[in-house]
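Researcher: Before we compare anything, I want clean individual predictions. No alignment, no superposition, just each chain on its own. First chain goes here; please echo the sequence and then give the structure tokens.
Model: Echoing the first chain and its structure:
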Amino acid sequence: MEPLVKTEREQVVESTLDDNEESVSSGQLPAHIAERLAAVEQKLAELEERLPEDRVSVVVFSGDLDRVLAAFIIASGAAALGQQVSMFFTFWGLNALRRKKVTEGKELFEKLMALMSPANTHELPLSQMNFFGIGAKMLRAMMKRKQINSLEEMIALARQLGVRLVACEMSRDVMGIKDEELIEGLDIGGVATFLGDALKSRVTLFV
């Protein structure tokens, strides 16, 4: 036999069920379900923002001819496959973007750094077997004989494919590299610029 007087808990449960029935019958979700659904949708939106895009980011730290060649081959290949590609040149990698030496208006160490660095891509050494520049000239001759694009042609191709070239602002300032020493049409950026691209990329490489 059911008790004549309902407990407080039973009354709350009945009231909640009645509210839910009224909400469902009127086509509205109960408030607590609507709140949880909104929280799930917000979480999904946050996860979607973190999903990688069709991007490839390459850090070019080396100024060696063979390594810079590899970086541009990968970058051009990825761009040809429809990826958005950005290349971030820092420290010795900036030598791959040089077009001439400038010593005027520089401090002593900056002048020495300019004099000891390659003036342009034709002066980049090999990482191994350079032999005072003979190895680099041999490699270029072998590439030409086998009809492989030179580094300068690869840079031009990468730019035609829309590859973004970014010169590291901090490295440029530390090494005293002036704007006129670098090829034209570069973006200048710092670590935030690189991370902004890398966090959206499916692939990130360090060369």
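Researcher: Okay. Second chain, same rules.
Model: Second chain and its structure:
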Amino acid sequence: MTGPASSSVLLCGMLLLAGCDRSSTGADAARGQALLAQYQCGRCHVIPDVPAATGTSAPALTAWGRRSYIAGQLQNEPQNLQRWLRSPRSVVPGAAMPDLGVSEADARDMAAHLMGLR
């Protein structure tokens, strides 16, 4: 396919991608960003692009996607981050991070946003 037909196919593909913020895993990073605000993660953490996320009692989450470990215990991978977000104290007993009652779907989207912070 060449010429105007291929340009149309390319344009349609770009429009579909622009209108969809979901990754191949089904995660929605934009929703995750909003959820980080909703769960008030910013009371303790500085989180780029999350309004009012200016807390200083816990580490800043700036460039989270480049980190090697979660809480110094788990490799920083989406599945591990979701597990941490859902139940931090089951991952690291005595962890300062509280259990916020994050659902599986919410953790997936929150992790997608955090993993995108580079």
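Researcher: What stands out in the second chain?
Model: The helical segments are 4-18, 29-38, 78-86, 88-91, 104-115. Additionally, The two ends are 37 Å apart (CA to CA).
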